[in-house]
Design brief:
Blueprint (H helix, E strand, L loop, with lengths): L10 H11 L6 E5 L12 E2 L14 E4 L13 E9 L14 E4 L11 E4 L9 E4 L21 E3 L7 H8 L5 E5 L3 E6 L4 E2 L10 E2 L1 H12 L3 E4 L7 H14 L2 E5 L10 H7 L3 E5 L10 E5 L2 E6 L3 H20 L8 E6 L11 E8 L2 E3 L18 E5 L11 E6 L1
Parallel strand pairs: 4-5, 10-13, 10-14, 11-12, 14-17, 18-20
Antiparallel strand pairs: 1-9, 2-8, 3-5, 3-6, 4-7, 15-16, 16-17, 18-22, 19-20, 19-21, 21-22
The structure holds ligand LQZAQKY5 and molybdate ion.
Amino acid sequence: MRARKRGRTPIEEAVSMIVEETKGPIETELRALADSAGYVLAGDVRAVLDQPPFTRSPLDGYALRSSDLNGAGREHPVCLPVSQYIPAGIISSGRLPEGTAARIMTGAPLPEGADCVIPQEDTDLGEHRAAFYAFIEPGRNVCFKGEDIKAGESLVFAGTRLDFTHIGILAGQGIRRVEVYKKPRVAVMATGDELLPLDKEPVPGKIYDSNGVMICARLRELGAEADLHPIKGDAPGELAAATERLLQEYPLVITTGGVSVGDRDYMPAVAEMVRARILFHGIAAKPGSPALAAVRNGRILLALSGNPFACIATLELLARPVLAKLSGESVWRQRQVRARLAGSFGKPSPARRFIRARLTGGLVSVPEKGHSSGSLKTLAGCNCLIDIPGGSGALAEGDEVKVWLF
Ligand SMILES: Nc1nc2c(c(=O)[nH]1)N[C@H]1C(S)=C(S)[C@@H](COP(=O)(O)OP(=O)(O)OC[C@H]3O[C@@H](n4cnc5c(N)ncnc54)[C@H](O)[C@@H]3O)O[C@H]1N2
Ligand code: MOO
């Protein structure tokens, strides 16, 4: 158990503090494979079948013995009787008689005795007797049983977040259901007297709660079951009661707003009122520097700053690793890459700073303006944050930067 960190905590340290306090998932469920994208596999899955399950033709053509094609060419075709017709889905009736060919379709099982397939383009397409205009070596144009997957081999490991690739592989095995971890439930609560829910008409001096809705959308994209709770005003008793309730029900509670130094920023006091142990209050980066994390009975309270860009940036930086652990993802690493700046960024960064950007083909471009942490418009189309080290001057076109992908 780590002691509360005083002062501003570097992001990496903050992340490892919260992740260390986060409990992995226990509850699993059996889900239909077709409906399991985005869930994390709870146990290793091994192949139950060879794939392909039989040796088959990858072409429409004729299956035969290569030795029967000796000397075949455009000028000297070899002619053979066609002894079988094998469409896809049908096992040939018997061994291919010596000196004959089987008409075969793509995906059909090779008849026993055949060792290659000649594409129909190199034949006269004869029905009872066919002429072959090329020589084909043994093994050519044959997909061998088990060449892709061998029964018994490990296919997908526990802790993998399933996507369409895994689902395709497992469907090829006839696996109908998979054991996955239940999605982690996350409570989201926006705080602030100025906030309006979307179902209210505009009111002078008030703004709509974009943070709550945006964070829930992102959490769902990241595989969580996110519940948006009613907005709470800046009243410590009410905030504490709501936070207390949420911490009883959810492994992760994310609030936005009221976490800085203002008279009415009550979240630090609320964390204490609900007897949560504060891990850190303040991160050594902008935006979102007032962020606070606390833990109570293994449940995490993450109080993010109210400025919309600050809250979404810190959700990526701080909450994503927590979510990965809650989900049971065994290998999770923030996807960080290096890239060259496509334009410039004029502001110096005395402290570490994260800015919105778009990475395409190794080049990362930054909106010309609209970087304030209260502004969201230019976030549209961005797919990453640029991580600018503290003490940096302005950035110039071509500079190499570190990028954290969304
Ligand atoms: N004297 C100082 N003032 C401030 C400091 C400081 O160090 N000294 N830090 C600034 C920084 S940095 C930030 S970030 C903000 C963060 O303050 P809070 O996290 O307490 O957030 P609020 O004050 O509640 O809100 C900030 C801003 O965002 C708007 N907001 C809040 N919630 C939402 C929402 N759900 N949807 C949309 N917009 C929201 C709110 O109206 C404010 O405009 O503090 C600085 N001040
Ligand atoms: O965290 Mo504030 O958004 O740094 O300006």
